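Re: the request from the purification team.
They wanted to know what the chain is likely to look like in 3D before they choose a buffer screen. I agreed to run a prediction and write the result into the notebook, where they can find it.
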Amino acid sequence: MDIRIFQVLTSFIAILFIVNMTNNFRQSKIDYLELLLGVLFSLTLLLFAIFPDIISITIAKILGIESNINAVIFLSIIFLFFFQLKIFLKLKRQEKILTILTRQFALKDVLKEEDL
């Protein structure tokens, strides 16, 4: 098995990502779930870097796609849509919270003006 440049580079980036996520967790910048997802993502990236052909062929067989690179791209697009949906849902939740807080502050201001 010959080692290609992208394997070394991707492995290095995955290890740096794990170290960064661990440091952020220690500094309480992220919670346990975010750490777990980040490390899982990095380990998956590391496995793809170390065994690119074996994993891509296995994914292609599981999905029933003949070309292994198409299977990897298809799976990547699915994950991207999933994460985009999660970000969208978090944004909508934040908008609801912001709306509730704005209404509460507005009501407090109105009540203060009435008391004067």
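For the purification team: The first helix runs from residue 5 to 26.
Please add any questions underneath this entry.
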